[in-house]
Amino acid sequence: MIISGVLGPAELILILCIPLFFLLLPIIAIVDILRSRFEGNNNVLFLLIVILLPIVGSILYFIIGPSRKVRY
């Protein structure tokens, strides 16, 4: 709730958390790609997608990536 032009604590938390989420998501995806093994050149492909399209690429990686990992 905004009281007399000043943001309340709930708005401040929301304003700070959303950009933080969008900054951390690609970083987590890149770290996971570098630590995992994939079939063929899929790791290079996933890295390029995440670097060129950070948000969409990260979401696609977390949806498609786990099924492409090599199982030991």
Describe this structure in words.
The chain has 72 residues and is mainly α. It has a domain at 24-68. It contains three helices and no strands. The protein has helices at 9-35, 42-52, 54-68. The longest helix is centred in the first third of the chain and has 27 residues, at 9-35. It is elongated, with a radius of gyration of 17 Å.
Coarse structural class: mainly alpha
Estimate the global geometry from the Cα principal axes.
elongated
**Low-confidence runs (pLDDT<50, min 5 residues)?**
none
How much strand?
A: under 5%
Q: How many helices in DSSP terms?
A: 3
Beta strand count: 0
Largest sheet: none
**Mean of all residue-level pLDDT scores:** 88
- List SSEs in N-to-C order: HHH
How far apart are the termini?
52 Å
| Percentage of residues in helical conformation | over 70%
Radius of gyration: 17 Å
Descriptors for this entry?
72 residues; mainly alpha; 3 helices; elongated
Question: What's the SSE blueprint?
Answer:
Elements: H1 9-35, H2 42-52, H3 54-68
Helix pairs in contact: 1-2, 1-3, 2-3
